[in-house]
Design brief:
Chains A, B, C, D, E: This is 5-hydroxytryptamine receptor 3A. Five copies of one chain form a homopentamer. With 408 residues, chain A is of the alpha+beta class. The first copy, chain A, has helices spanning 2-6, 15-18, 184-194, 236-255, 263-287, 297-336, 353-361, 368-406; strands at residues 29-44, 49-61, 75-79, 88-90, 105-109, 135-147, 159-168, 176-180, 201-215, 220-233. Chain A folds into two domains: 2-234, Neurotransmitter-gated ion-channel ligand-binding domain (Acetylcholine Binding Protein, Chain: A), CATH 2.70.170.10; 238-406, Neurotransmitter-gated ion-channel transmembrane domain (Methane Monooxygenase Hydroxylase, Chain G, domain 1, Up-down Bundle). Helix content of chain A is 38%, strand content 24%. Chains in contact: A-B, A-E, B-C, C-D, D-E.
Chain lengths: 408, 408, 408, 408, 408
């Protein structure tokens, strides 16, 4: 196992194995990175974090040795912590999650065997060029939880763009340069291929940008590689399970104006509607975290319908009151005119307002009080019709404005 | 304890103990693997991951020594981290969970005592053949959380196939070859035997396939062993606790057409139905994550019934309106004909529509207005009957289509 | 600190400190174990795992030295990881939880001082016999999560038996033998004494069995010590909070047959019952995981009551329909016989069916149509009575069968 | 850095740095402990565990050196794991949580410089006395999760006493003696001062007791320091949000006896009450774990009110039935006596029972059947009144007994 | 790699690398700290803890070497654990969370090259002044969970001030002095810039104070840097989703006084209101932990409205009872006066109270009993009106007081 000694892997002191092999010539060590998103595990709107399964491939210049000197050995495996690996890390990482299927072993392979490998550590020459065959590569499957600014305003029709910024933690741009292996299109394509989880989120696109950051405190220039991941929520289940039922309740509320019967029946019908929407507010409360500066549109949608039904209940109470007033005056009249023969006319059930009002209005040749009656019931009826028209217009306007904001 | 020195276990440097003993002759080291699923702990549909308890047996060529040289010692135990073990890992592993009852100690045993063990590390000869007695084996009980693409479309009648792919992390096919010890049937059989948890999921089958993967970046050919685990959800509790109640609500809704009484009673009955289904939507919301491209059938089932009942409420409102219109015209007529002797006939409670319509229709020899009355109530009745027939047909068609999609 | 050197504790290499001191004579090293359950922290029916707080005492032959040679030192404390401890592990352990109050330090004490301790490691003599004073003991408080097959069929009257199997991970029966210190009765007694948490579960019994397992792959015979822990759920809160309310709803449903009033009042009463049971299904859904091959009895209980009330609603609708039919025919008759003097008899409120049917049946000397009326209402009444009897019988049979299955 | 060598901190072998410096003279090393509770993070009634933030101060005899010999250095900082610290641990600790702000560095300081520090490790002299200035101290902020037997019987008016027992894990009473620095009053006072979280729990008192335990297996006598922490739940929010609403429902139920109207209205009112209490049982189910031998009083409270309302519904049904029977017989009578002139008297709405019963009872000079009528309605009325009185008495007795049990 | 040896990084013993380089001259080593809050991940009111993402920059005097002696190397990277870093820790830290993107590598850079670096470790000179270019800096992104006293009294209009106290764990004020780099304004500004998460909480301000603490036990004076973070909850979603619906229910309750119809309709309307509020109490129970000495205002708000509606239900029952009493006496009168011709007058539906009372009151020339009737109904009406006025006044007073307390 002389090779291992030769490569400096057998020493227990940290000199060589843990230090970055300094490049002899002053050029920076090129590091190549690829990052594929294989699944979106969790999107936590409350903590504003995105958990993804990421396959990250890092490549850097190969180690080399003369295979004839070491029993013709062409490959050579060593635990990963015995060799230097680039210290690329992710800035947005929110919570510490360990690398998962990270390779704990590296396989080194002879590239060329030209002459003895100079014992000088500094002369660890970099083979430039993206040719992967000339790179030591390390493929890690990482479970990443990155912070991501998410705006829930358009929930559940929202789409978010999250950044994953790769950057060396210690080496400046003069020591390490970071580049992507595959371009954005290739990464998007392959990510979609790899994309395993058919979850709530759809992967739209992955973009790669090369950036350059200057850390003031340390006067340190760093290369950055920014991956922009665009994801879109699949809204169908929310529409079906939440928005549609609430909309049906709204339609039922509008239709309840045509309920024929005692006014209190209409009232209890509408109260049951309100109660049902309260149950749905329970679901909304579970689904939607209290984030955001603006209220999410779905909250506006739900609350507006709640308020609308509340107002329509108030209107029903008012109209009922007016009708009752109308009826009562009629009755008083008939009670006064009671002694004459038309007594039995008043025997009909006064719950049946329309009939009683018709009755009250049929004989127009009556006294002053009759007219007041006429007045009240007419007012009630006019209010009812006008309110219904305004109500429907409000709903249409509200829904169309909301729809435009929601799905532009 | 010379044996330990002899086997190279006493050295604190990593040379021998942590490096793979390179095979002298160019054949790859054979590694044999068996994987039994002993329980399915968790199936997270949202994160699209499967947590299983797995018993994984790995076997590789035995170490050997001459027992006569070492005080006749036949067995020899050493902590696991002092010896080389194959670096088989699982690709789909989603979250880092530690091995659980993993053996921390290996027991080595003499196989044969032919001559001195050559001090040359390279000559660590492999004993080929699956004969387990000639293998060092290591049985680990692992709690695995693997990513698994799950389609909830047929929930709760769904079954999923999850892969567990075993692969060396560093050694190419030229260094390590992976094979299964037991075949698929044996593994399925023994897994079912071991299967402890009588949980929501039933283990249907475990399949083993040998695959071969080429990692482009590194020009590395790897052996893979793919275990395909097929599991099936036990739907009974969902059927009993969720689908049956919702179905009962649908039946009650159909039967509510035969409710005799004031129209508003029918309405309040149906509204209570709708409210109850809202409560069940709460349960559905807890149970079903918003995943999937297509809406899961159970969401369609629930929403469709919700919408159907909503429509039937609208129809009830319409029919009531028409009936009320019919009644009202009759009354107007009778009010006009009031002065004659048949006054007391109109005294009957107008809430009782059937009777009033019968009344209205009995004396056919009446004027124009009477006919309108006849018309409205007849229209209402015809609409009611036609709607009921259409409603029942719709329900039957919907349920049979759904049933076919669900349980093909 | 020569003693530490003498005992081999000062060496940084792993030879002696981490290796099991091989017994010179060929007998196995006796290891004695005791396991007390001090609390049941969690019983996860879904994951089918049991989390217990366990006090585990392990004893093995003492180390010895001549105290006169080492400044008369009689005791000697060393960090636990510097000495060999038996590698007893638990097979069912489901999730990795660390030892909690595990002693990190061992205290060694002189037993006898006969002559120099031979420098030969192999001669580490075992003192046989369970005499604890002659054992090195280690008491660990462990938080164990073990897999346990739980059948929720009888929930909440269920009791489960979970195994904790202790076994050496590496040493065969020839090297280590495992025995219990205290017998089953002693352990049960002392566990109940220690039992801290007055939680949902009651500790019934702990049983100890010695087993013997043969691992085929390695031709390894192992001693096992199986602790069988029997626990019983305290059902009272479930009975009070869940089963009793649902039973009260059932009683109310039966009693609702005696509700006097309009048929639709009875209907709305029953619908509210159904809605309330839906709310309780919400609780059931939270409490009971969807496990088990058979549906748990509590699910059957809940669903059966749900279905029973559903059926009784259907019957109420049917009976109401029949009664309405009866009434209507009477009215038609009276309408025909209207012109004569008994007109005003038909003026009574037809909502009050009993009276109207009595009316209809009182004057028997009427025509054919009257009899049909009689027929319909009689049929309705008979159906009502028969259904009630059948309903009560069904409920009694169902509850008694369920009761027998539940608490045999 | 000769001082570090001198103190034995530079050695990589474990001899001196990790071993307890054995006391030369046979007295035990005195260890002084103080424990302050700075907040109660979580009280898990289900797992019966208490999570507290604890500030634990440990003091032990100081290290010393001659400052003139070491460049006049007076202080000296070293990572904590390089020096011996007392192995005090907590017995009740339920789950492994790491020390949090534990000091990773120790600061050593010269005390006196009298002569050379003898190179003999055994002579590490203890400075006795609680004088803190002569103690090495280590202040750790620990997040402790300790098992604690909690009885929820009086929830939410419960208070619990949890023990935190400090004990050396390895050293017997002959090697280490444990004492508190501050007495109970001082600790309670300072804990209340430190107490940060204004959570659900109020810290009442902290008590310190010195105990002495004998571990039989090892013949080991240990010093213990038991801190008894008494905490009290702040019940106000539970009273306001849970108990008060349920009580209001009970009051409404009692008042519902005075509801004037059709019997079925009273019924539907009471059913809505029952439904509302079901919703509150949902909350209770979330709040209260199913622990305890006895049912918690709050469960009794809730269930008893549920059952009481259930019974009052049954009574309402019975009374309604009796009243209906009474009315019906009257009607039969009047129907028989129908042919005479008083026919129109029976035309009045029979829904209005009081009037009809009055009617039935007004003309006393009637036949036998009339009397039965009288009887039924009278029975109904008497039952109603008696039940109401009994009901109110039951409620008062129940609530006062409950109140006494709850807040003695 | 002589430089590494020269700087003392190659030694495996802990002398130099892990010990704080003692300052030769007696001045304390200046340490400069900056702390930016980049997001608020979680605010746990129950555990009274605040989880923030914090960027913490620590600067301390630079290491230096003569670049000409070491091949002209100007920069030099080393793993962080090989060099001394200041042991600044946070006192309030509640739970152990690892540093996240903490730099594992430090980059050292030549500052000046004047002469040989003296081999004496003690002469590690500090370059004073905040000039960052002369500081070794380390930027850590930490996920901090700090204890924070939060008062939920004004929830959801609450704002909290949490402290993050930085302090050396071992070094006294004579060894290390802590200062901030940027002042409070700069930190607030840059934090707001960095602030990523648009969550429930708004960052108001960050304040920096320098403090000085004396630890009595150790006679240790420590520098402290206290960052006071003021955050404010965004209440909009709570207002919209919780407080508004409950307020609407209150309005509906007030308006229900104007419901015209049978008294029981009003009752069932109010009961449905109460049931709906119960559903919202479910949400409140999920949202608000039972903390706080005083009940949070939102609990008072919710409970007060609950109680108000409960009282208004009681009043409705009372008024209905009085009205019924009034009506009954009238009926008795009319029954007595029945024999005369006005019999058919009493045939009208007694459910229609207003009409019947009017009827009863119209003919004033009646006997004593009539007057009692008049009395009862008048009392009922007066009570109703007075209660309504008082009720509205109570509500207005309550809401305005609450509003003042809430948003001063």
């Amino acid at each position: 196992m002389a090779l291992s000694q030769y490569l400096g892997l057998d020493k227990s002191n940290n000199d060589i194995t843990k230090m970055r092999p300094l490049v002899y010539r002053s050029t920076a060590t090129p590091v190549y990175v690829d990052l594929y998103v294989s699944s979106i595990t969790n999107v936590d709107e409350k903590a504003q974090s995105l958990t993804t399964q990421v396959k990250m491939i890092t490549g850097w210049p190969k180690m080399k040795w003369n295979k004839t000197l070491f029993c013709g050995m062409e490959t050579f495996a060593a635990p990963k912590d015995l060799v230097w690996t680039p210290d690329i890390s992710i800035i947005e990482r929110a919570f510490g999650r360990c690398l998962v299927t990270a390779r704990r072993w590296m396989l080194f392979r002879v590239i060329w065997s030209c002459g003895r490998f100079p014992r000088l550590v500094c002369s660890f020459e970099s083979s430039d060029g993206k040719n992967a065959a000339q790179l030591e590569t390390s493929a890690d499957f990482v479970s990443l939880t990155t912070a991501c600014k998410m705006d829930l305003y358009k929930f559940p029709f929202d789409s978010h763009t999250c950044n994953i910024t790769l950057q060396s933690t210690a080496y400046s741009v003069y020591e390490i340069s970071i580049d992507e292996i595959t371009n954005a299109d290739g990464i998007t394509g392959r990510s979609k291929e790899l994309f395993q989880a058919q979850g709530e989120w759809e992967l739209i696109e992955i973009n790669v940008t090369k950036a350059f950051i200057n850390i003031i405190y340390e006067d340190l220039n760093l290369d950055q590689l920014i991956y922009q991941i665009t994801i879109k929520r699949r809204p169908l289940l929310y529409v079906i399970n939440f928005m549609l039922p609430v909309f049906i309740f709204l339609v039922l509320d509008v239709m309840s104006f045509f309920i024929h019967g005692r006014g209190t029946d209409k009232l209890s019908f509408k109260m049951t509607l309100l109660l049902s929407i309260s149950v749905f507010l329970l679901i909304l409360n579970d689904t939607l975290p209290s984030t955001a500066n603006q209220i999410p549109l779905i909250g506006v949608y739900c609350s507006a319908i709640f308020i609308l039904i509340g107002i329509s209940i108030l209107e029903t109470i008012l109209v009922n009151l007016l009708k009752a007033k109308g009826k009562r005056s009629v009755e008083t009249t008939t009670a006064v005119t009671g002694p004459n023969g038309s007594v039995s006319d008043s025997v009909r059930d006064q719950n049946e307002e329309p009939s009683s009002t018709l009755n009250c209005c049929a004989p127009i040749q009556q006294n002053q009080q009759e007219k007041t009656c006429l007045c009240w019931t007419r007012v009630a009826r006019i209010i009812d019709v006008i309110f219904l028209i305004l109500y429907i217009i409000t709903i249409i306007v509200f829904l169309s404005v909301l729809g435009k904001l929601w799905i532009p």
